[in-house]
C-alpha cells in the first residue's frame, strides 16, 4: 500500500474523505495531521480522532498542527459544516488522545526517514502545516512523491469570494509557499469538485449498503446537503475533499491539464485567487474533468468492502 499522510480540517467532507481513505486497502495512512480551517484547531483535532474512533481505527495517530494561518486573520466555515465542524455525527469526546508531537514536527520526522519520492501528502484544509514543514525542513521535499491538494478555482469562480476557494483563501500565503516549491502536485479545485455532487439518487445507493461506515457517510452527506440548501438553495453539496482519495484510487476517472499554478496574495478583491498556466513540464496537474457516476461507484465499492 501507498504511504500517506493526510492533513485536514474536519469538516464534513473531510470526514467523508477519511472514511474513504481508511477504507481503501491500497492506501496506508501513516498519520492524520490537523489544522485550523473549517472550525478552530481544537475542534478539527477532536473531529479527526472522533471519526477514526467511530471507524474502529483508534490506532491511526492524530497530530494537531497550526492554530492559525501564517499572516492573514483566521476564517472559518461553520455555515457549511455546523458549529461542531461535523454536523451529522453525534459528538462525544474521543477516548484516543491527540499525540503530543506538533503536526509540523511529525510531518518532518516521518518524511526524513522515508526513501525518495515515497510518501504522498493529501491536503484538504488550508496549507499552513505543509508550508511550515517545507520552510523548516526543505530537504523533506525529496521524500514526497506527490501532494494531492483540494483547493483553488479557475473557470468555476470561488466559493468564499467571487474568485477564491476556501482552503486557499483561508491561508493564501501558505498555498503560495507550497505551490512555489515546484513539488509535483495534483490539484482538485472547484473546477473539478463541482462536477461531483451528492445527489439524492447517489446518496440513496449508499444508504442501501449495510454497515456503520455507510450509515455514517450518508448521515454526513445529508447533513451537508441540509446546510448547502440553506446557503445555496437548489444545489447539492460537492464532494470536495473526497475527490482527493478518489484520484488516488482511480486516476482513470479524471482528466488533467499539466500546469503551473500560483496564488494571488495581493490584498484586494482577488486575494486568494489561483492562476492556472498550462505548462507541459508541470509541476502541477490541474484536474479538469471527473466521471462523477464512476466516482460514486468507487465509493460504493469501498463501503461494501471489509470494514
Ligand atoms: C473546501 O473548504 C472546506 O470548507 C471543505 O472542507 C473543503 O476542503 C472546499 O472549498
Ligand atoms: Ca476541508
Descriptive terms for the model:
9-stranded mixed beta sheet; 307 residues; binds beta-D-ribofuranose; 9 strands; binds calcium ion; alpha/beta; Inosine-uridine preferring nucleoside hydrolase family protein; 37% helix
* Widest sheet: strand ordering: 3-2-1-4-5-6-9-7-8
What gap, in angstroms, lies between the N and C termini? 17 Å
Q: In sequence order, what are the helices and strands, one letter per element? A: EHEHEHHEHEHHEHHHHEEEH
**Distinct helical segment count:** 12
Say how many strands there are.
9
Instruction: Output the structural class.
Output: alpha/beta
GO cellular component, one term: cytosol
Protein name: Inosine-uridine preferring nucleoside hydrolase family protein
Domain Inosine/uridine-preferring nucleoside hydrolase: 4-296
Keywords: Glycosidase, Hydrolase
What's a concise summary of this model?
The chain is of the alpha/beta class and 307 residues long.
What's the helix and strand layout?
Blueprint: E1 2-8, H1 12-22, E2 27-34, H2 41-54, E3 62-64, H3 78-81, H4 103-112, E4 119-123, H5 128-136, E5 144-150, H6 166-170, H7 172-180, E6 185-188, H8 190-193, H9 200-207, H10 212-231, H11 242-249, E7 254-263, E8 274-278, E9 284-290, H12 292-304
Parallel strand pairs: 1-2, 1-4, 2-3, 4-5, 5-6, 6-9
Antiparallel strand pairs: 7-8, 7-9
Helix pairs in contact: 1-2, 1-10, 1-11, 4-5, 5-7, 9-10
The chain binds beta-D-ribofuranose and calcium ion.
Amino acid at each position: 500500500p501507498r504511504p500517506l499522510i493526510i492533513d485536514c480540517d474536519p469538516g464534513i467532507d473531510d470526514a467523508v474523505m477519511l472514511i474513504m481513505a481508511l477504507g481503501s486497502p491500497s492506501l496506508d495512512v501513516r498519520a492524520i495531521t490537523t489544522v485550523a480551517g473549517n472550525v478552530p484547531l481544537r475542534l478539527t483535532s477532536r473531529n479527526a480522532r472522533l471519526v477514526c474512533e467511530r471507524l474502529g481505527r483508534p490506532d491511526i495517530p492524530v497530530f494537531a498542527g497550526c492554530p492559525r494561518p501564517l499572516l492573514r486573520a483566521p476564517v472559518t466555515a461553520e455555515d457549511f459544516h455546523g458549529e461542531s465542524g461535523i454536523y451529522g455525527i453525534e459528538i462525544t469526546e474521543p477516548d484516543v488522545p491527540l499525540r503530543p508531537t506538533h503536526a509540523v514536527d511529525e510531518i518532518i520526522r516521518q518524511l526524513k526517514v522515508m526513501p525518495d519520492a515515497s510518501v504522498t501528502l493529501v491536503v484538504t484544509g488550508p496549507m499552513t502545516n505543509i508550508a511550515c514543514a517545507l520552510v523548516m525542513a526543505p530537504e523533506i521535499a525529496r521524500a514526497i512523491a506527490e501532494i494531492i491538494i483540494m483547493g483553488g478555482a479557475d473557470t468555476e469562480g470561488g466559493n468564499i469570494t467571487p474568485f477564491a476557494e476556501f482552503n486557499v483563501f483561508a491561508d493564501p500565503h501558505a498555498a503560495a509557499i507550497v505551490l512555489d516549491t515546484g513539488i509535483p502536485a495534483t490539484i482538485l479545485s472547484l473546477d473539478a469538485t463541482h462536477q461531483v455532487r451528492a445527489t439524492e439518487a447517489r446518496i440513496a445507493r449508499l444508504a442501501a449498503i449495510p454497515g456503520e461506515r455507510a450509515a455514517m457517510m450518508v448521515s454526513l452527506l445529508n447533513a451537508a446537503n441540509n446546510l448547502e440548501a440553506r446557503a445555496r438553495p437548489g444545489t447539492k453539496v460537492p464532494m470536495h475533499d473526497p475527490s482527493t482519495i478518489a484520484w488516488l484510487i482511480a486516476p482513470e476517472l479524471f482528466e488533467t491539464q499539466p500546469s503551473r499554478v500560483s496564488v494571488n496574495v495581493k490584498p484586494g478583491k482577488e486575494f486568494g485567487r489561483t492562476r492556472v498556466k498550462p505548462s507541459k513540464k508541470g509541476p502541477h496537474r490541474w484536474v479538469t474533468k471527473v466521471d462523477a457516476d464512476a466516482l460514486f461507484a468507487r465509493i460504493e465499492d469501498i463501503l461494501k468492502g471489509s470494514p
